[in-house]
Amino acid sequence: MSTTTAPTRLLSPDELEAALRAIGAERYHNLHPFHRALHDGKLHKAQVQAWALNRYYYQARIPAKDATLLARLPTTELRREWRRRVEDHDGTSPETGGIARWLKLTDGLGLDRAYVESLEGLLPTTRFAVDAYVHFVGERPILEAIASSLTELFSPTIISERVSGMLRNYNFITEETLAYFKPRLTQAPQDSAFALAYVKEHARTPEQQQAVLAALRFKCDVLWSMLDALDYSYVLPGRIPPGAFRPDTTA
C-alpha cells in the first residue's frame, strides 16, 4: 500500500500495522542525509553541537506534549499509561529523566547549559516544527494524537545506529555523553507497543484509519523538517539565520 493513498476499505488490524510500518520505512528521519552524516562521522563538532542544541527543544517539549494529551484521556488506565511517559522525560527528582540526560549530552559537547536552556539559539524551523507537534497532540482527536507517537516504533533502530556510529566516529563523544539513549531502548518499545495496540483496536472505520496514517506521516514530517533546517543552516555555508547558534560565539 502506498503511504500517501487513503484506504478505500476497512483494513484488518494487521494490515493497518503494516501500513503504519510502511510509512516509517519510507519517511522516518533515519533516511535523511543529515542523519546519515551524523552517524557516519562526517560532521564536525560544531555541526553536532547544532544538532544537539536544536534537538533539546524537541526533548524538552515532549512531556508538555504528553501532558496536553494526558489531560484529555478519559480513563484511569489510559492516564496512568501516559503519565509514565511524562515521568520518563521529566524525571521524578532533579537530574533524572530524559531531559536531564539530554543536557548531559549538550554539556559533554561543550555547550553552555544556561544557553541551551534559554532556547535563544534555536533555528526558526525547529521552534515551528516542535510547536506544531505539541499543538497537533493538544487539538486533534485522541486516536490521532496517540497515533502520532508511533515514530517510536522505529526509534530503537535509529538509537542503536546513533550510539554505535557516534562512539566509533567522534573522539569528543563518550558513553556518558550518550547516556540519554540507553533507557530509550526499553522505554520506546514499551511506549510504541501500547500506542500501536490502542490504534489497531480503536481505528474502526476507513476514515479513522486514514486519519491515523496521516498523523504518523505528519510526525515523520516534523522530524524530517528539523533535519532539513540543520542541513540547510549548518552544512551549506553562510546559511545560519539571525539569532541562531553560531559555534564561534556561543559554544
TrEMBL record:
<keyword id="KW-0560">Oxidoreductase</keyword>
<keyword id="KW-0884">PQQ biosynthesis</keyword>
<feature type="domain" description="Thiaminase-2/PQQC">
    <location>
        <begin position="18"/>
        <end position="228"/>
    </location>
</feature>
<dbReference type="GO" id="GO:0033732">
    <property type="term" value="F:pyrroloquinoline-quinone synthase activity"/>
</dbReference>
<dbReference type="Pfam" id="PF03070">
    <property type="entry name" value="TENA_THI-4"/>
</dbReference>
<dbReference type="InterPro" id="IPR039068">
    <property type="entry name" value="PqqC-like"/>
</dbReference>
<comment type="function">
    <text>Ring cyclization and eight-electron oxidation of 3a-(2-amino-2-carboxyethyl)-4,5-dioxo-4,5,6,7,8,9-hexahydroquinoline-7,9-dicarboxylic-acid to PQQ.</text>
</comment>
<dbReference type="InterPro" id="IPR004305">
    <property type="entry name" value="Thiaminase-2/PQQC"/>
</dbReference>
<dbReference type="InterPro" id="IPR011845">
    <property type="entry name" value="PqqC"/>
</dbReference>
<comment type="pathway">
    <text>Cofactor biosynthesis; pyrroloquinoline quinone biosynthesis.</text>
</comment>
<dbReference type="GO" id="GO:0018189">
    <property type="term" value="P:pyrroloquinoline quinone biosynthetic process"/>
</dbReference>
<protein>
    <recommendedName>
        <fullName>Pyrroloquinoline-quinone synthase</fullName>
        <ecNumber>1.3.3.11</ecNumber>
    </recommendedName>
</protein>
<comment type="similarity">
    <text>Belongs to the PqqC family.</text>
</comment>
<dbReference type="InterPro" id="IPR016084">
    <property type="entry name" value="Haem_Oase-like_multi-hlx"/>
</dbReference>
